[in-house]
């Protein structure tokens, strides 16, 4: 069984919470109802909006660029590599990303958490 990938997108210091946050994988919008299953998103809106993308039982095809695109801010991406073998795991490139909002300084970060099975 593969690990669970938890990608977390945080939007702070925005004049208002984003009305929606869209997630993509390799520039394709993620389908949470796909036959693959095990892919879900949880978004908490407020002064600091947080969106968690969960990919359970990660495998090689889940590797690639994941993008968090808040409706009222520029998107940010992170590159994830799923490694297989005796100890499957995922690696990510990227981390906290800064974004300049026209009205104020906004902070958008993408954080990757791996949960082993």
TrEMBL record:
GO terms for cellular component: neuron projection membrane. Residues 1-84 form the Ig-like domain. GO terms for biological process: synapse organization. It comes from Pararge aegeria aegeria. PROSITE patterns: IG_LIKE. The gene is jg14964. SMART domains: IGc2 (SM00408). Transmembrane segments: none annotated. This is Jg14964 protein.
